[in-house]
Amino acid sequence: MTLEFPPGFVWGVATSAYQIEGAVDEDGRGPSIWDTLSHTPGAVRRGENGDIAVDHYHRVEEDLDLIATLGVGAYRFSLAWPRIQPDGRGAVNERGLDFYRRLVDGLLERGITPVATLYHWDLPQALENAGGWPARDTAHRFAEYASKVGDALGDRIGYWITINEPWCAAFLGYSLGQHAPGRAEPSAAVAAAHHLLLGHGEAVDALRATAPEATLMLALNFEPTGPATNSDADRDAARRADGLYNRLFMDAVLGGAYPEDVLEDLTVVSDLAHIRDGDLDVISRPVDALGVNYYTTTLVRAGDAPAEAAPTQWPGSAHVVAHEPEQATTAMGWRIDPDGLERLLRRISSAYPRTPLYVTENGAAFDDEVGPDGIVDDVDRIAYLEGHLRAVRRALDHRVDVHGYFVWTLMDNFEWASGYDMRFGLIRVNGPSRERVPKRSFGWYRDMLRANALVG
Ligand code: FCB
Protein backbone atom coordinates (compact mmCIF):
# COMPACT_ATOMS: atom_id res chain seq x y z
CA MET A 1 0.00 0.00 0.00
CA THR A 2 1.25 3.47 -0.82
CA LEU A 3 1.28 5.95 2.04
CA GLU A 4 1.35 9.45 0.66
CA PHE A 5 2.48 12.53 2.51
CA PRO A 6 0.72 15.89 2.18
CA PRO A 7 1.72 18.11 -0.73
CA GLY A 8 4.41 20.53 0.39
CA PHE A 9 5.59 18.31 3.25
CA VAL A 10 9.19 19.37 3.96
CA TRP A 11 11.79 16.63 3.57
CA GLY A 12 15.17 17.42 5.02
CA VAL A 13 18.42 16.23 6.47
CA ALA A 14 20.30 17.64 9.47
CA THR A 15 23.86 18.20 10.71
CA SER A 16 25.64 20.41 13.25
CA ALA A 17 28.77 22.53 13.03
CA TYR A 18 31.14 20.90 15.52
CA GLN A 19 30.22 17.41 14.36
CA ILE A 20 31.17 18.01 10.72
CA GLU A 21 33.17 21.17 10.06
CA GLY A 22 36.68 20.69 11.45
CA ALA A 23 38.94 23.69 10.66
CA VAL A 24 38.80 24.67 14.30
CA ASP A 25 41.67 27.17 14.04
CA GLU A 26 40.82 28.69 10.69
CA ASP A 27 39.58 32.10 9.64
CA GLY A 28 39.54 33.50 13.13
CA ARG A 29 37.40 30.85 14.87
CA GLY A 30 37.78 30.89 18.65
CA PRO A 31 37.77 27.80 20.88
CA SER A 32 34.49 26.30 22.07
CA ILE A 33 33.69 24.15 25.07
CA TRP A 34 33.70 21.10 22.80
CA ASP A 35 37.29 21.80 21.69
CA THR A 36 38.26 21.92 25.34
CA LEU A 37 36.33 18.83 26.41
CA SER A 38 37.39 16.71 23.44
CA HIS A 39 41.03 17.44 24.28
CA THR A 40 40.51 16.39 27.89
CA PRO A 41 41.81 12.85 28.41
CA GLY A 42 39.03 10.33 28.96
CA ALA A 43 36.18 12.59 27.88
CA VAL A 44 35.59 11.12 24.41
CA ARG A 45 35.87 7.51 23.30
CA ARG A 46 39.37 6.78 21.89
CA GLY A 47 40.35 10.37 22.69
CA GLU A 48 38.81 11.57 19.43
CA ASN A 49 37.93 15.19 18.70
CA GLY A 50 36.40 17.47 16.07
CA ASP A 51 39.65 19.17 14.97
CA ILE A 52 39.13 17.87 11.45
CA ALA A 53 35.79 16.14 11.93
CA VAL A 54 34.63 15.19 8.42
CA ASP A 55 36.31 18.25 6.94
CA HIS A 56 33.07 19.82 5.80
CA TYR A 57 34.61 23.30 6.06
CA HIS A 58 36.88 22.48 3.14
CA ARG A 59 34.51 20.20 1.27
CA VAL A 60 31.43 22.33 1.40
CA GLU A 61 30.91 22.36 -2.38
CA GLU A 62 31.09 18.57 -2.59
CA ASP A 63 28.68 18.27 0.34
CA LEU A 64 26.27 20.75 -1.22
CA ASP A 65 26.24 18.62 -4.36
CA LEU A 66 25.51 15.52 -2.30
CA ILE A 67 22.62 17.28 -0.54
CA ALA A 68 21.28 18.29 -3.96
CA THR A 69 21.61 14.71 -5.23
CA LEU A 70 19.67 13.51 -2.21
CA GLY A 71 16.90 15.78 -3.40
CA VAL A 72 15.82 17.17 -0.03
CA GLY A 73 13.87 20.39 0.06
CA ALA A 74 15.59 21.62 3.23
CA TYR A 75 18.97 21.34 4.93
CA ARG A 76 19.28 21.89 8.65
CA PHE A 77 22.77 22.91 9.83
CA SER A 78 24.15 24.92 12.72
CA LEU A 79 26.27 28.04 12.86
CA ALA A 80 29.32 27.84 15.07
CA TRP A 81 29.04 30.75 17.49
CA PRO A 82 32.85 30.80 18.00
CA ARG A 83 33.38 31.36 14.26
CA ILE A 84 31.13 34.39 14.37
CA GLN A 85 32.08 35.82 17.77
CA PRO A 86 35.34 34.10 18.74
CA ASP A 87 35.02 35.30 22.36
CA GLY A 88 31.24 35.10 22.44
CA ARG A 89 30.75 38.84 22.54
CA GLY A 90 31.28 42.01 20.57
CA ALA A 91 32.11 42.54 16.91
CA VAL A 92 31.52 39.79 14.40
CA ASN A 93 34.28 37.96 12.59
CA GLU A 94 33.36 38.50 8.95
CA ARG A 95 35.50 35.57 7.77
CA GLY A 96 33.45 33.26 9.96
CA LEU A 97 30.21 34.66 8.57
CA ASP A 98 31.54 34.30 5.03
CA PHE A 99 31.61 30.53 5.38
CA TYR A 100 27.90 30.50 6.18
CA ARG A 101 27.16 32.99 3.39
CA ARG A 102 28.81 30.56 0.97
CA LEU A 103 26.92 27.61 2.43
CA VAL A 104 23.55 29.37 2.37
CA ASP A 105 24.04 30.80 -1.10
CA GLY A 106 25.07 27.35 -2.30
CA LEU A 107 21.86 25.90 -0.90
CA LEU A 108 19.69 28.61 -2.41
CA GLU A 109 21.35 28.19 -5.81
CA ARG A 110 20.41 24.54 -5.66
CA GLY A 111 16.83 25.27 -4.63
CA ILE A 112 17.29 23.96 -1.07
CA THR A 113 15.79 25.82 1.89
CA PRO A 114 18.33 26.60 4.63
CA VAL A 115 17.21 25.89 8.20
CA ALA A 116 19.80 27.40 10.54
CA THR A 117 20.34 26.40 14.15
CA LEU A 118 22.05 29.14 16.17
CA TYR A 119 23.28 26.93 19.00
CA HIS A 120 24.16 23.27 18.71
CA TRP A 121 26.35 23.05 21.83
CA ASP A 122 29.58 24.83 20.83
CA LEU A 123 29.60 27.62 23.41
CA PRO A 124 32.61 29.96 23.01
CA GLN A 125 35.08 28.90 25.70
CA ALA A 126 35.45 32.54 26.83
CA LEU A 127 31.79 32.52 27.88
CA GLU A 128 32.24 29.27 29.79
CA ASN A 129 35.19 30.88 31.55
CA ALA A 130 32.81 33.65 32.57
CA GLY A 131 30.39 31.10 34.08
CA GLY A 132 28.78 29.40 31.09
CA TRP A 133 25.05 28.75 30.85
CA PRO A 134 24.57 28.72 34.63
CA ALA A 135 25.37 32.47 34.43
CA ARG A 136 22.46 34.68 33.38
CA ASP A 137 24.67 36.89 31.23
CA THR A 138 25.20 34.00 28.78
CA ALA A 139 21.52 34.29 27.78
CA HIS A 140 22.04 37.99 26.97
CA ARG A 141 25.22 37.20 25.03
CA PHE A 142 23.28 34.62 23.03
CA ALA A 143 20.63 37.21 22.15
CA GLU A 144 23.34 39.61 21.00
CA TYR A 145 24.82 36.87 18.80
CA ALA A 146 21.34 36.09 17.41
CA SER A 147 20.80 39.71 16.57
CA LYS A 148 24.11 40.01 14.74
CA VAL A 149 23.52 36.81 12.79
CA GLY A 150 19.99 37.95 11.95
CA ASP A 151 21.42 41.23 10.63
CA ALA A 152 23.99 39.43 8.52
CA LEU A 153 21.98 36.49 7.19
CA GLY A 154 18.32 37.32 7.81
CA ASP A 155 17.87 38.31 4.18
CA ARG A 156 18.61 34.78 2.99
CA ILE A 157 17.54 32.42 5.79
CA GLY A 158 13.81 32.00 6.38
CA TYR A 159 13.90 29.25 9.03
CA TRP A 160 15.71 29.53 12.34
CA ILE A 161 16.12 27.19 15.28
CA THR A 162 17.44 29.09 18.29
CA ILE A 163 18.68 26.33 20.58
CA ASN A 164 19.11 22.63 19.94
CA GLU A 165 18.12 20.33 22.79
CA PRO A 166 18.45 22.45 25.93
CA TRP A 167 18.02 19.30 28.06
CA CYS A 168 21.27 17.87 26.71
CA ALA A 169 23.14 21.17 26.90
CA ALA A 170 22.08 21.67 30.51
CA PHE A 171 21.98 18.21 32.05
CA LEU A 172 24.52 16.22 30.02
CA GLY A 173 26.83 19.24 30.13
CA TYR A 174 26.52 20.57 33.66
CA SER A 175 25.18 17.70 35.77
CA LEU A 176 26.00 14.34 34.25
CA GLY A 177 29.29 15.69 32.94
CA GLN A 178 29.20 13.61 29.74
CA HIS A 179 29.03 16.56 27.36
CA ALA A 180 30.87 19.86 27.34
CA PRO A 181 31.75 21.56 29.56
CA GLY A 182 31.83 18.31 31.56
CA ARG A 183 30.73 19.74 34.90
CA ALA A 184 28.91 17.70 37.54
CA GLU A 185 26.99 20.38 39.43
CA PRO A 186 23.25 19.67 39.50
CA SER A 187 22.23 23.08 40.76
CA ALA A 188 24.26 24.73 37.99
CA ALA A 189 22.52 22.46 35.48
CA VAL A 190 19.10 23.63 36.63
CA ALA A 191 20.20 27.25 36.22
CA ALA A 192 21.71 26.40 32.82
CA ALA A 193 18.39 24.95 31.64
CA HIS A 194 16.63 28.16 32.62
CA HIS A 195 19.19 30.41 30.97
CA LEU A 196 19.18 28.35 27.77
CA LEU A 197 15.42 28.90 27.63
CA LEU A 198 15.79 32.58 28.49
CA GLY A 199 18.40 32.90 25.75
CA HIS A 200 15.95 31.23 23.37
CA GLY A 201 13.22 33.76 24.22
CA GLU A 202 15.56 36.73 23.93
CA ALA A 203 16.86 35.38 20.62
CA VAL A 204 13.28 35.13 19.34
CA ASP A 205 12.88 38.86 20.05
CA ALA A 206 16.22 39.60 18.37
CA LEU A 207 15.34 37.59 15.25
CA ARG A 208 11.84 39.05 15.00
CA ALA A 209 13.48 42.49 14.89
CA THR A 210 15.99 41.54 12.20
CA ALA A 211 14.12 38.88 10.20
CA PRO A 212 10.42 39.63 10.72
CA GLU A 213 9.17 37.21 8.07
CA ALA A 214 11.16 34.21 9.28
CA THR A 215 9.78 31.03 10.83
CA LEU A 216 11.26 30.74 14.33
CA MET A 217 11.42 27.64 16.48
CA LEU A 218 13.57 25.72 18.91
CA ALA A 219 14.36 22.02 18.86
CA LEU A 220 13.59 19.96 21.95
CA ASN A 221 14.73 16.40 22.49
CA PHE A 222 11.80 14.43 23.73
CA GLU A 223 12.26 11.13 25.44
CA PRO A 224 8.89 9.69 26.36
CA THR A 225 9.16 7.65 29.53
CA GLY A 226 7.02 5.02 31.13
CA PRO A 227 7.24 3.05 34.38
CA ALA A 228 8.94 -0.35 34.28
CA THR A 229 6.30 -1.76 36.63
CA ASN A 230 3.02 -0.56 37.97
CA SER A 231 4.42 0.12 41.43
CA ASP A 232 3.87 3.58 42.91
CA ALA A 233 7.60 4.12 43.15
CA ASP A 234 8.21 3.33 39.48
CA ARG A 235 5.25 5.39 38.36
CA ASP A 236 6.58 8.32 40.31
CA ALA A 237 10.05 7.81 38.83
CA ALA A 238 8.48 7.91 35.36
CA ARG A 239 6.60 11.08 36.22
CA ARG A 240 9.81 12.72 37.41
CA ALA A 241 11.81 11.64 34.38
CA ASP A 242 9.07 12.78 32.00
CA GLY A 243 8.88 16.07 33.86
CA LEU A 244 12.56 16.76 33.54
CA TYR A 245 13.11 15.53 29.99
CA ASN A 246 9.93 16.68 28.37
CA ARG A 247 7.50 18.85 30.30
CA LEU A 248 9.97 21.28 31.87
CA PHE A 249 10.98 22.59 28.46
CA MET A 250 7.78 22.20 26.45
CA ASP A 251 5.49 23.73 29.08
CA ALA A 252 7.82 26.66 29.71
CA VAL A 253 8.15 27.55 26.02
CA LEU A 254 4.64 26.78 24.79
CA GLY A 255 2.63 27.16 27.99
CA GLY A 256 4.49 29.97 29.75
CA ALA A 257 4.98 28.12 33.04
CA TYR A 258 7.19 25.45 34.52
CA PRO A 259 5.14 22.48 35.76
CA GLU A 260 4.65 22.77 39.52
CA ASP A 261 5.57 19.15 40.26
CA VAL A 262 8.84 19.49 38.36
CA LEU A 263 9.76 22.68 40.23
CA GLU A 264 9.14 20.83 43.44
CA ASP A 265 11.34 17.93 42.29
CA LEU A 266 14.08 20.41 41.40
CA THR A 267 14.20 21.91 44.90
CA VAL A 268 16.19 18.84 45.94
CA VAL A 269 19.19 20.29 44.10
CA SER A 270 18.37 23.96 43.50
CA ASP A 271 16.88 26.92 45.37
CA LEU A 272 15.55 28.16 42.00
CA ALA A 273 16.77 31.67 42.85
CA HIS A 274 17.87 32.12 39.23
CA ILE A 275 14.24 32.35 38.08
CA ARG A 276 13.19 36.01 38.05
CA ASP A 277 9.81 37.67 37.63
CA GLY A 278 9.01 38.10 33.97
CA ASP A 279 11.42 35.40 32.74
CA LEU A 280 8.66 33.03 31.73
CA ASP A 281 7.09 35.76 29.58
CA VAL A 282 10.34 35.96 27.64
CA ILE A 283 10.79 32.19 27.50
CA SER A 284 7.29 31.77 26.10
CA ARG A 285 7.53 34.36 23.33
CA PRO A 286 5.39 32.93 20.53
CA VAL A 287 7.26 30.62 18.18
CA ASP A 288 6.04 29.68 14.71
CA ALA A 289 6.68 25.98 15.13
CA LEU A 290 8.30 23.45 17.44
CA GLY A 291 11.19 21.23 16.41
CA VAL A 292 10.84 17.70 17.75
CA ASN A 293 13.97 15.55 17.99
CA TYR A 294 13.05 11.94 18.59
CA TYR A 295 15.16 8.82 18.85
CA THR A 296 13.79 6.55 21.55
CA THR A 297 11.62 6.00 24.59
CA THR A 298 12.70 4.74 27.98
CA LEU A 299 11.23 2.68 30.74
CA VAL A 300 12.35 3.72 34.18
CA ARG A 301 12.20 2.41 37.66
CA ALA A 302 12.82 4.18 40.93
CA GLY A 303 16.50 4.75 41.60
CA ASP A 304 18.21 3.19 44.58
CA ALA A 305 19.73 6.53 45.47
CA PRO A 306 17.34 9.44 45.59
CA ALA A 307 18.77 12.82 44.62
CA GLU A 308 19.20 13.84 48.25
CA ALA A 309 21.60 10.93 48.73
CA ALA A 310 23.66 11.35 45.60
CA PRO A 311 23.29 14.90 44.30
CA THR A 312 26.35 14.75 42.09
CA GLN A 313 24.88 11.90 40.07
CA TRP A 314 21.58 13.63 39.66
CA PRO A 315 19.36 13.31 37.67
CA GLY A 316 20.65 9.84 36.78
CA SER A 317 20.42 8.78 40.41
CA ALA A 318 16.75 9.65 40.71
CA HIS A 319 15.64 6.96 38.32
CA VAL A 320 17.29 4.18 36.41
CA VAL A 321 16.59 2.91 32.95
CA ALA A 322 15.03 -0.50 33.04
CA HIS A 323 16.59 -3.13 30.82
CA GLU A 324 14.51 -5.10 28.40
CA PRO A 325 16.69 -7.78 26.85
CA GLU A 326 14.16 -8.66 24.17
CA GLN A 327 13.84 -5.12 22.80
CA ALA A 328 15.72 -4.26 19.60
CA THR A 329 18.16 -1.40 20.00
CA THR A 330 20.43 0.73 17.82
CA ALA A 331 24.22 0.74 18.22
CA MET A 332 23.74 3.51 20.80
CA GLY A 333 21.77 1.01 22.90
CA TRP A 334 18.60 3.07 22.33
CA ARG A 335 15.42 0.99 22.06
CA ILE A 336 13.73 1.16 18.68
CA ASP A 337 10.20 2.38 19.26
CA PRO A 338 8.51 4.01 16.26
CA ASP A 339 5.10 3.96 17.97
CA GLY A 340 6.65 6.24 20.56
CA LEU A 341 7.01 8.92 17.88
CA GLU A 342 3.34 8.72 16.92
CA ARG A 343 2.30 8.93 20.57
CA LEU A 344 4.66 11.82 21.20
CA LEU A 345 3.44 13.87 18.24
CA ARG A 346 -0.17 13.29 19.26
CA ARG A 347 0.60 14.23 22.85
CA ILE A 348 2.31 17.50 21.94
CA SER A 349 -0.45 18.34 19.53
CA SER A 350 -3.22 17.69 22.02
CA ALA A 351 -1.43 19.78 24.67
CA TYR A 352 -0.55 22.61 22.26
CA PRO A 353 -2.81 22.26 19.22
CA ARG A 354 -1.91 25.58 17.67
CA THR A 355 1.81 24.87 17.32
CA PRO A 356 2.92 23.36 14.00
CA LEU A 357 5.51 20.63 14.40
CA TYR A 358 8.59 19.60 12.48
CA VAL A 359 10.49 16.41 13.27
CA THR A 360 13.88 18.14 13.23
CA GLU A 361 15.92 14.99 14.03
CA ASN A 362 15.30 11.27 13.74
CA GLY A 363 17.72 8.56 12.77
CA ALA A 364 19.88 5.72 14.00
CA ALA A 365 23.44 4.49 14.43
CA PHE A 366 24.16 0.91 13.43
CA ASP A 367 27.38 -1.05 13.01
CA ASP A 368 27.48 -0.49 9.29
CA GLU A 369 29.41 -3.05 7.30
CA VAL A 370 31.02 -2.16 4.02
CA GLY A 371 30.17 -4.68 1.31
CA PRO A 372 32.60 -5.95 -1.33
CA ASP A 373 31.33 -3.24 -3.67
CA GLY A 374 32.28 -0.59 -1.11
CA ILE A 375 28.63 0.14 -0.36
CA VAL A 376 26.93 -0.09 3.02
CA ASP A 377 23.69 -2.02 2.61
CA ASP A 378 22.10 -0.55 5.72
CA VAL A 379 18.77 -2.33 5.73
CA ASP A 380 18.45 -1.76 9.49
CA ARG A 381 18.67 2.03 9.05
CA ILE A 382 16.13 1.91 6.22
CA ALA A 383 13.79 -0.13 8.43
CA TYR A 384 14.25 2.35 11.28
CA LEU A 385 13.49 5.35 9.07
CA GLU A 386 10.57 3.66 7.37
CA GLY A 387 9.04 2.64 10.70
CA HIS A 388 9.30 6.17 12.02
CA LEU A 389 7.88 7.69 8.84
CA ARG A 390 4.90 5.38 9.11
CA ALA A 391 4.47 6.72 12.64
CA VAL A 392 4.55 10.31 11.32
CA ARG A 393 1.98 9.34 8.70
CA ARG A 394 -0.31 7.91 11.41
CA ALA A 395 0.08 11.12 13.41
CA LEU A 396 -0.98 13.07 10.31
CA ASP A 397 -4.01 10.79 10.03
CA HIS A 398 -4.88 11.91 13.54
CA ARG A 399 -4.74 15.53 12.36
CA VAL A 400 -1.42 16.31 14.00
CA ASP A 401 -0.01 19.35 12.21
CA VAL A 402 3.40 17.94 11.19
CA HIS A 403 5.03 19.99 8.44
CA GLY A 404 8.30 18.24 7.87
CA TYR A 405 10.84 15.59 8.75
CA PHE A 406 14.65 15.77 8.91
CA VAL A 407 16.86 12.69 9.01
CA TRP A 408 19.75 12.79 11.44
CA THR A 409 22.16 12.84 9.66
CA LEU A 410 23.59 13.58 6.22
CA MET A 411 26.91 11.83 6.77
CA ASP A 412 28.75 9.95 9.50
CA ASN A 413 30.35 12.42 11.89
CA PHE A 414 31.69 13.18 15.35
CA GLU A 415 29.05 11.76 17.65
CA TRP A 416 30.05 13.76 20.76
CA ALA A 417 31.32 11.60 23.62
CA SER A 418 31.00 8.49 21.41
CA GLY A 419 33.49 9.86 18.89
CA TYR A 420 33.41 8.50 15.33
CA ASP A 421 32.30 4.99 16.31
CA MET A 422 28.64 5.79 16.13
CA ARG A 423 27.64 6.18 12.49
CA PHE A 424 24.28 7.86 11.89
CA GLY A 425 24.84 9.01 8.30
CA LEU A 426 23.01 8.38 5.05
CA ILE A 427 26.52 8.75 3.64
CA ARG A 428 29.52 6.81 4.90
CA VAL A 429 32.67 8.81 5.55
CA ASN A 430 35.75 6.64 5.14
CA GLY A 431 38.75 6.89 7.46
CA PRO A 432 41.45 9.48 6.98
CA SER A 433 40.57 10.12 3.32
CA ARG A 434 37.13 11.21 4.45
CA GLU A 435 35.78 10.00 1.16
CA ARG A 436 31.99 10.21 1.03
CA VAL A 437 30.14 7.08 -0.10
CA PRO A 438 26.33 7.15 -0.08
CA LYS A 439 24.83 4.18 1.75
CA ARG A 440 21.81 2.24 0.50
CA SER A 441 19.62 4.40 2.79
CA PHE A 442 20.65 7.50 0.84
CA GLY A 443 19.04 6.15 -2.33
CA TRP A 444 16.06 4.85 -0.37
CA TYR A 445 15.41 8.29 1.16
CA ARG A 446 15.91 10.02 -2.21
CA ASP A 447 13.36 7.77 -3.91
CA MET A 448 10.91 8.07 -1.03
CA LEU A 449 10.94 11.85 -0.91
CA ARG A 450 10.78 12.13 -4.68
CA ALA A 451 7.57 10.06 -4.56
CA ASN A 452 6.45 11.98 -1.43
CA ALA A 453 5.21 8.57 -0.34
CA LEU A 454 6.19 5.28 1.24
CA VAL A 455 5.59 2.61 -1.33
CA GLY A 456 5.00 -1.04 -0.56
C1 FCB B 1 21.01 14.48 19.22
C2 FCB B 1 21.92 15.61 18.82
C3 FCB B 1 22.66 15.37 17.55
C4 FCB B 1 23.14 13.93 17.44
C5 FCB B 1 22.01 12.98 17.70
C6 FCB B 1 22.37 11.54 17.55
O1 FCB B 1 20.79 14.50 20.59
O2 FCB B 1 21.18 16.80 18.65
O3 FCB B 1 23.73 16.29 17.48
O4 FCB B 1 24.20 13.72 18.25
O5 FCB B 1 21.49 13.21 18.98
TrEMBL record:
The keyword Membrane does not apply. Gene3D superfamilies: Glycosidases (3.20.20.80). Substrate binds at residues 19, 120, 164, 295, 408, 415-416. This is Beta-glucosidase. GO terms for biological process: cellulose catabolic process. PROSITE patterns: GLYCOSYL_HYDROL_F1_1, GLYCOSYL_HYDROL_F1_2. Keywords: Carbohydrate metabolism, Cellulose degradation, Glycosidase, Hydrolase, Polysaccharide degradation. It comes from Egibacter rhizosphaerae. It catalyses: Hydrolysis of terminal, non-reducing beta-D-glucosyl residues with release of beta-D-glucose. Belongs to the glycosyl hydrolase 1 family.
